[in-house]
Design a protein that fits this description.
about 30% strand, single chain, 5-stranded antiparallel sheet, flat, 11 strands, 2 helices
Length: about 180
């Protein structure tokens, strides 16, 4: 499907079920036709190679820009983390929100990240397709994200155990050789 306005074009393609290596059914699609300085009177939808098509619903969403939008963006920017400190495995900062909100990051989602809000563990969620996010109550909060590579402890223990077995085997073999006449 291709969506076309007088200034922009965007499309998506869903391969057929016979293309087993790349088939991925899509039940929700968002096509962004970008910013426009003038109203769009028409949006043309074109379908190529479609034998049948059904919609449960379709929505056209236009976000008005201007003073209200700029005010909303300033409010959201004010709610971002401040006093930010970032290291390779830790992010800390403070968040301030007048209402309950969603913390969104640009950190790729991984099960190794742990979040505390005001020192208490808080669940993380996948937001914006693949980034770390979390629900935050209204108010000011101290945020701490820490990362521990999944499986690192188990890998360290297995490596230490393997090295211990190797050293003990070498000692055992050496002792057996010494005892031989």
């Amino acid at each position: 499907m291709t969506a076309t306005s007088f200034q922009n074009v965007n499309s998506f393609n869903q391969l057929g079920q016979t293309n087993l290596s790349d088939y991925e059914p899509k039940s929700h699609v968002l096509l962004n036709l970008g910013y426009s300085t003038s109203p769009r009177r028409k949006i043309k939808l074109t379908f190529k190679g479609v034998k049948s098509l059904s919609f449960k619903s379709a929505k056209l969403i236009a976000v008005p820009f201007g003073k209200p939008y700029a005010k909303q963006m300033r409010t959201l920017q004010h709610q971002g983390l401040s006093n930010l400190n970032v290291t390779s495995d830790r992010v800390t900062g403070t968040a301030q929100a007048d209402t309950a909100s969603i913390l969104t990051t640009s950190i790729p989602y991984s099960s190794g990240w742990r979040l505390t809000v005001d020192g208490k563990p808080q669940a993380t969620h996948r937001v914006n397709v693949g980034f770390i996010g979390a629900s935050l109550p209204a108010g000011q909060h101290k945020i701490e994200l820490t990362h521990r590579t999944p499986g690192l402890r188990l890998g360290t223990v297995a490596t230490a155990l393997g090295l211990l077995i190797m050293v003990l085997s070498a000692i055992w073999t050496g002792l057996k050789r010494r005892k031989r006449p």
